[in-house]
Every structure is written in structure tokens, then in C-alpha cells.
């Protein structure tokens, strides 16, 4: 039994001979609790209590931070320029490296035999998305393109050219799709949304500035023409120098070609449906106006 | 009682002789080293305690062979390190640590500069005979969860509460990641402080000078009255005035320790109870009578300790034990969900049922392999159990 022993090991053996651990025996690790320094106590800490001698310093009347005695302060002398203007309103996309994606697939946290969605990435704790902090989704980044070797059908919000090339080289499919903030919140945390009893919303189309991005075949946008996407795949293969594998003869062909409708958030669920998790039922709308709204 | 502190000196200075009745008697004493032992001529040596720690392996084998040859079995009691610790009160305990170890040479060695006062040793527990080690008891429960390859399960006996005299029903396997984790007193300290403080709401409240009734008017004119200048009769310098920096309103001391720290605290408490022999496993909580005296008798007979915390798995506890413990202050029954570090440390002894062991292992081991929560764990997850 030389190697099968317990982690407590020696400590637990020692404990047998030591007094009982009681409420009176507990103490913090020495050095963790430092005594708070109180102002104005003691022979040397008292008297002026570390405030200096007379003047604004002792009397607590010093001028504001940044004041330079009358000289134009630094923060006013430098002219303004809108470097950070509207920074808190800019869209953010959480990067997902191919390294990380390969790591998650290898560990079994992401299943490559099913379409990879932002929901799957969040469930496998691969990325952390905060829809309330102007996150608009995930962007695929090319770091680790050299070692990436998984055939996946992945849907992200933005993708770099290198990343697209790496995935298509392995016989996978990349799509970029837009999710408005409300749909993104539903996509990231579906269970609390279903428990709230609201119907699945329809995904809104991208704003003016992002429409060119999502209609461009080079970005594999979900609004782009499928034929142009095929041409772009061939062009990219030529550019990066790999042979484009033929996916139509693949065994997982059906799974790889699964794509969402531009108004759909979840595979297999349409907008307008209500999911009842307690009774495991789906309720679909029957009213004409509702159907018209959700099908538009 | 003699402690053989330096064997050579004793044998050099003592001459032993067999008297007519066949007893061992001191025939002559050499002056010097033995003067403080209090031995004199004619003293009869009735018994001796031989501490094997300082002897070499050959000497120990020689002594054991001698004892074996001469048929000393009934009169000789061989004590192991375990028993030694419990009967430390009978030895010269204040000086014992020096003899026992020199800086972690042995497996259970105590540090040489440790002083354990004798009043911390419970003489009643020392009288408890250790259960037979070689008897073949069936293993009543194996661990449900997978045990890591490099660890092995800890075992303890299963007793019964039905009869007063202790009869062992079998053995039970306990998961090492719950019952044999490294002891961290600082984590126990943190969890204990948290348990005390997170519920605390201090309702101390004093009035500031603006809240004290009155004091709006200037008491007397600024100049000319000969008195000190004042603006209000409720300023902090005045008697009856407001308090400048006193406690302000109900203050909450709520904070939450990370879930895994609290879980680790429970595991450490369980492990230390088991290691220090204060944990007992019982098959069920069925007792024959609702009489509290029966429980007290049982505890005293088995030399368990002063206070006992009994833990069962479910909410429904047998009526007999509920009635019996209702009037008792030091014996308490709780469901397993109510197990906490403070109660475990407050009570000397912890008694778990087999179902409680299963429940605790299940709950405490889950935290080892779970994902971080996306939303509260109370909401349904499909992938986490």
C-alpha cells in the first residue's frame, strides 16, 4: 500500500494524537489577518494623527484632484478628440480561438456531431457572453489554425478569414449570423427564458451598418447567396492553398448542412412557440394575426 | 510509575535479585543517577512499561522473544500508538512528547516542542477498549461514487443503538474525498465565522446631533456672556448631545463564502471527526424506549463523550429518538441537510446513519465535478445531475 494512500495522510495521523478540534481551537492562518490601523492612537500615531502641520493639509481643505495651483491643468490643456466616444455603445464580440475550440471538442464539452451554436458553446462553458454589456456574440479568431483538426458545423457572429479557411480545410462549415440583444439573451440562457413563460421571439435583421457584412459571401453571412458562398469557398481554398473537400459525399452531410432560418433562434423551434418545461410541452399560436406576425 | 527514560543508566545503577517468594527485589542501589528515582534497597518491582521507540530492532525482538518463551501472554499488554495516545494520562504525559518523537521521525510523530497539558486528555475515553482488529466483519456498504485511483476508502465500524452494550454489526467504506481530506483549520475558522456573522444584523443605533430632540437655537449670544461659545445644546460636546461617530442604524454583516469553501469546510469537519475517533456510524436510529435515560446510559457505557450530534438522512425521524432527545440538552438529532460546521464542532461526538452517510457523500462529492452555474442551480439543468 505504498502509493494508495489518502491525501489527508500524515495530517490525519497526526490528528489522532492532538487535542480535539473544537470551537476554541480554530484560528486563521498566521499572517492572513492583519490588524487594522486606527488613526490617532499611540504616542507616535497620535498628536497630529499623520496629517502634517497646519495649513490645508491638516485642516482637510486641499483643492480638487488635478488642480495644479492655477496653471492650466493637464486634463484641460490637452485638446479633446473622440477616441473613446460612444465606447460603451459599441458592439463587442467575445473572441473564440480555434485552439480553445479544439480543446473543448477534445475534452468532450462540445459535441462535433451536432451543429455548434452559441448555446452549445455556453453550455460547455467555452465562452462567457454578457448580452447586457453590449456583447453581440462570439467571433472566431484564427489563432491555432495550424493545429485545428475537427469537422464541425459552426455558427458564430463574426469570423476572420484564417479561421474560415481552417474550418473549411477540415471539411466543416462556418456561418455568420446576427442576433439582436434580446434574441442573444434568449440564446445564451434558454432555460430561464422558457421558465418565464414568454413565447420565443423572432430574430431581428441586422442594422444598416451590419447588413453589408452579413450579405457578403466572403464572411459566409447568413443572408448571402448560397452560390456565391460556394464560389467564395473555392476562392479561399485557392488563396490558402488547400484542396476543398467535397462535403456532399460526407456521412454527416445532413447535419453539416443544417442552417437556421434568418428569423429562427433555436434549431427545431419556431418563433412564437411557448415551451412549457414543467410539463414538457410546446404550445403553438393559432391566431391569424400572431401567425402573420411570426411568419413575416 | 517508572518511565524508562534511559535504560542503560537504570541497569548500571541497579542490582536486581529474586526473593524467596519469586518476586523481583532491588538488592543494592548505586548512588548518583538513581537517587531521584526514589528507589531504595528492598523495593519490589511490580511492573514495568517498556517504550520501544528508543530501542533498536534487535533489542525489541530479543525482548519479545523472551516474553514469548516465558509464557507472559496473560500478564503482558501490548499497546499500540493509538492506545498510547488515549492512555497518555497514565504516563508522564508532560514529558511524553520528547520521548515519542524527534522531529517527525515516525508516522504519527508529534513535534518535540509540543506541550499537551494533561487536563485535555479524557480519561473516560482512555478506558474504552479498542474494538477487535482481526475479527471478520462484513462490509455493509461500499462507496457509490468512483474513488480516484491513487486513493483508497477509509473504513469504520457500524454500531447499533438498539442495545446498550456495543455490538458491532459490520464495516462501512467511506469515500476518501469526503472523509479523509487534508485538515485545514483556517477553512474551518472561516466557515465558523461566516456562520456566526452572515445572519447578524446589529440593531444598535444612536442619534446624531441633528436627530436629537431640540438644539435648534443658539443657547446664548456669541460674545459678552463670559461663557464658551456654542451653537446648539445638542452638539456632541454637550451632555445629552448627539453622538458623532456612533453606530448608525441596523447594520447587516451578510456575506457569502464561495460555495466550494463551505463544502470543503463540511468535508474537513467530517474528516477530522473521523480521524480523532469522534465519528460513529449507526445502522438506524430505532431505539427501544423514548426514555432519555436510555440514551445517556448508552453514551456513558460506550464512552462516546459529553455531547452527541445524531444525524439522519430524511426529514422523518423515528418518534422514540425525537422524544428521547427533546429534553436532553447535550444530545441532539438533526436531518442531514442541517449538518453544519458549527454544530459539528460544538458537539463532541457525531453519529451518522448509513443513509446519512450516503446522502452526504452524494451531495458533497457533486461539487468536485460540476460546471460553474449559468443560472441558479435550483432551475433545471439537462446536463448536470
From TrEMBL, chain A:
<protein>
    <recommendedName>
        <fullName>Large ribosomal subunit protein uL15m</fullName>
    </recommendedName>
</protein>
<dbReference type="Pfam" id="PF00828">
    <property type="entry name" value="Ribosomal_L27A"/>
</dbReference>
<dbReference type="InterPro" id="IPR021131">
    <property type="entry name" value="Ribosomal_uL15/eL18"/>
</dbReference>
<keyword id="KW-0689">Ribosomal protein</keyword>
<feature type="region of interest" description="Disordered">
    <location>
        <begin position="23"/>
        <end position="71"/>
    </location>
</feature>
<dbReference type="GO" id="GO:0003735">
    <property type="term" value="F:structural constituent of ribosome"/>
</dbReference>
<keyword id="KW-0687">Ribonucleoprotein</keyword>
<dbReference type="InterPro" id="IPR030878">
    <property type="entry name" value="Ribosomal_uL15"/>
</dbReference>
<keyword id="KW-0809">Transit peptide</keyword>
<dbReference type="InterPro" id="IPR005749">
    <property type="entry name" value="Ribosomal_uL15_bac-type"/>
</dbReference>
<comment type="similarity">
    <text>Belongs to the universal ribosomal protein uL15 family.</text>
</comment>
<dbReference type="GO" id="GO:0005762">
    <property type="term" value="C:mitochondrial large ribosomal subunit"/>
</dbReference>
<dbReference type="GO" id="GO:0006412">
    <property type="term" value="P:translation"/>
</dbReference>
<feature type="domain" description="Large ribosomal subunit protein uL15/eL18">
    <location>
        <begin position="95"/>
        <end position="175"/>
    </location>
</feature>
<dbReference type="InterPro" id="IPR036227">
    <property type="entry name" value="Ribosomal_uL15/eL18_sf"/>
</dbReference>
<keyword id="KW-0496">Mitochondrion</keyword>
TrEMBL record, chain B:
<feature type="region of interest" description="Disordered">
    <location>
        <begin position="209"/>
        <end position="231"/>
    </location>
</feature>
<feature type="compositionally biased region" description="Basic residues">
    <location>
        <begin position="218"/>
        <end position="231"/>
    </location>
</feature>
<dbReference type="Pfam" id="PF00573">
    <property type="entry name" value="Ribosomal_L4"/>
</dbReference>
<protein>
    <recommendedName>
        <fullName>Large ribosomal subunit protein uL4m</fullName>
    </recommendedName>
</protein>
<dbReference type="InterPro" id="IPR023574">
    <property type="entry name" value="Ribosomal_uL4_dom_sf"/>
</dbReference>
<comment type="similarity">
    <text>Belongs to the universal ribosomal protein uL4 family.</text>
</comment>
<dbReference type="InterPro" id="IPR013005">
    <property type="entry name" value="Ribosomal_uL4-like"/>
</dbReference>
<keyword id="KW-0496">Mitochondrion</keyword>
<dbReference type="GO" id="GO:0003735">
    <property type="term" value="F:structural constituent of ribosome"/>
</dbReference>
<dbReference type="GO" id="GO:0005743">
    <property type="term" value="C:mitochondrial inner membrane"/>
</dbReference>
<keyword id="KW-0689">Ribosomal protein</keyword>
<dbReference type="GO" id="GO:0005840">
    <property type="term" value="C:ribosome"/>
</dbReference>
<dbReference type="GO" id="GO:1990904">
    <property type="term" value="C:ribonucleoprotein complex"/>
</dbReference>
<keyword id="KW-0687">Ribonucleoprotein</keyword>
<dbReference type="GO" id="GO:0006412">
    <property type="term" value="P:translation"/>
</dbReference>
<dbReference type="InterPro" id="IPR002136">
    <property type="entry name" value="Ribosomal_uL4"/>
</dbReference>
